Each structure stands twice: as C-alpha cells, then as structure tokens.
Task: structure prediction
Amino acid sequence: MSLQIISDTKSRLLSTLGYYDEIRTKEERRLGLVAPYEGHAAFSRTWKSIIERVASSNALNEHIATLLNMHLKKNNDLKKMMNQVGGISATYGQDGTSRDAASGKIYNISI
Result:
C-alpha cells in the first residue's frame, strides 16, 4: 500500500471523526453532559476506551514518524554516497544512446 493511499485514508478518517465529535458535542450541550461522563457508567466506560485508543494511536504515529525519518535519512545518505562516487543514474543519455555503466566497482548497500 502506498504512502499516499494511507495518507488519504487517514485524512478521510480524521474528517469523519471530526464530524462525529461535532455531533457528540452538540448532544452533550443538549443533554447537559460533559466528558468524561462520571455520572453515567456506560458513557464513562466508552469515553475511557476512546481515550485509551487515542493514546495508543498517538504512540503508533510517533513510532511511524521515527521509522519514516530513519528511512529518509538512509535514502539521503545513499543518494549522497552515490553522488560522491560518481554513479551513473541513467542507462541512456539525452540523445537516446546507451551509456557504458560503471564497471569494476561493487557496492554492498544495506537499507
């Protein structure tokens, strides 16, 4: 699954959550309730579950951000290394003729 699809899906879910949160807030005002709903056992349990899931999601997002930053750093380091050794980035020149690939050099790169 591509990062763009994940990002779009996340945006749609956040928009949906915002919509339902707005409905929840209106109903709270109408009924005179306030989260965490200490006077209502069922509401209180549900609210606690929501808070726990939000905390878990935040921790997961932070972990994913760390992994993405590590990946970006490795990609940038690899790109910098390839530029320093003069690696040829294209198989064909601008005129469409093939170029000779660099020979005699082997790089063992782990990403």
Notes: The two ends are 19 Å apart (CA to CA). The chain has a mean pLDDT of 84. Helices lie at 3-31, 41-84. The chain is about 65% helix and 0% strand.
